[in-house]
Write a structure and sequence with these properties.
With about 400 residues, the chain is an all-alpha fold. Helices cover about 70% and strands about 0% of the residues. Strands 1-2 form a two-stranded antiparallel sheet. The chain starts with a helix and ends in a 7-residue tail after the last helix.
């Protein structure tokens, strides 16, 4: 009986990891894929490798939090672990079917918190510290975006503009004995370097996803002493990789095209900010969502750049004469950067749209709905089913 439960628990963990791969790959690689500098298959391969690195190193701290700190390890009986994983996976699958990068960490914490509430074993101090970080992360992402968009973006764009040529980035020179890569027609050295930088940062974001999200798939198994940490990280990585190569194609399309059409510089800023927030939180053992920081940084970056025509004093007082929007980030920087408060309003308002507001509303709604459903279903299930362990 125990062997059968273990098998079911492993399948449930793979199911969760599969859905994590579908969600997190879209967040990490949506901007590079949307900017046409990485194929979906290449993104999935790099995602899988760096998820393993993140889970094997920093991710162990998050496994400890979800697998024993939020509720006692003894609560995770094999049957309880299966139920928790089922609610995590179902909540994420529901969102993935709609092409939304749901917060896997919030869904996992919700399902485990439901178990703790039903058994009276929830550590409210640990839950409170997690929720504080959840409140801080999107605020940090937004204001980092605002600062870059309002005060730094145009200067960075002028100095290190990350421009793309229409042709291939690299071609093969077949004139020698062995084919050697060379820059494609129209590709400048700056474009080649900038593209490598953007891909490198997406790999960093994949690392941060592994640091946070591998635990979401395997922490109940480790908490219930059903599998060791090392094997759990490997299992979680394989499952996430499967999701990255399959259902992640839709979420990469959603983030890369529906939410925003980011220039390379903007994609670089967003990924660095979101990955850094997530990695720091994971190192502290806090399950953190890449989606929270990513989307809010995009919004802040556009809003910050759109408010450049408004002086700081008027902005604080709310005296904004222009019709401020977040349509500004794809507007090209001129030969000379105007000072904040002196830029012509029409320049940023006539730019290509930064993001579809309805997409942002849809994303935020699923961040709230997914974890809430997971918590409620988990709580009811463990009230009705006496399958949790005892302390």
């Amino acid at each position: 009986m125990v062997s059968l439960l273990l098998l079911v628990a492993l399948v449930a963990a793979v199911f969760v990891g599969f859905n994590i791969g579908g969600s997190s790959t879209g967040v990490a690689w949506g901007p590079p894929v949307g900017a046409n500098i990485m194929s979906k298959t290449g993104a999935a391969a790099l995602m899988t490798g760096f998820v393993f690195l993140g889970g094997w190193t920093v991710g162990r701290n998050v496994i400890d939090t979800l697998g024993g700190d939020l509720v006692p390890q003894t609560i995770f009986s094999p049957a309880a672990s299966i139920v928790v994983l089922a609610f995590i996976g179902l909540g994420m699958l529901f969102a993935n079917l709609y092409g939304v990068p749901v917060s896997t960490s919030m869904t996992a914490v919700g399902a485990i918190a439901g178990l703790g509430l039903a058994t009276g074993e929830l550590d409210y101090g640990v839950l409170g510290s997690i929720m504080v970080w959840w409140a801080i992360a999107p605020v940090l992402g937004f204001w980092f975006g605002v600062i870059f968009g309002r005060y730094l973006y145009d200067y960075l764009d002028q100095k290190v503009a990350l421009e793309q040529s229409s042709g291939p980035l690299l071609t093969l020179n077949r004139s020698g004995v062995l084919p050697t890569p060379k820059l494609g027609p129209g590709t400048t050295p700056r474009e080649a370097v900038s593209t490598v930088v953007v891909i490198g940062i997406a790999c960093y974001m994949s690392f941060s996803a592994g640091a946070s999200n591998v635990a979401n798939a395997v922490a109940p198994l480790v908490g219930g002493d059903l599998i060791g940490v090392n094997n759990a990280v490997i299992l979680g990585t394989v499952a996430i990789g499967i999701g990255a190569f399959t259902i992640a194609r839709r979420t990469m399309e959603s983030v890369g095209n529906d939410l925003t059409e980011l220039p390379l510089l903007a994609a670089t800023i967003v990924m660095v900010v979101a990955a850094s927030i997530t990695t720091v939180a994971s190192a502290l053992g806090i399950p953190m969502s890449l989606a929270l920081s990513t989307v809010m940084c995009i919004v802040g970056l556009g809003w910050g750049r759109a408010t450049r025509p408004t002086g700081a004093g008027d902005l604080v007082k709310g005296n904004i004469e222009t019709d401020i929007s977040v349509d500004a980030i794809t507007h090209e920087t001129g030969d000379e950067v105007s000072r904040v408060g002196e830029e012509e309003p029409g320049g940023v308002q006539d730019a290509q749209q930064l993001f579809d507001p309805s997409s942002v509303v849809r994303f935020v709604a699923f961040w709230i709905i997914g974890p809430s459903i997971a918590t409620a279903l988990s709580y009811v299930a463990f009230l009705l089913l006496p399958i949790a362990g005892t302390t």
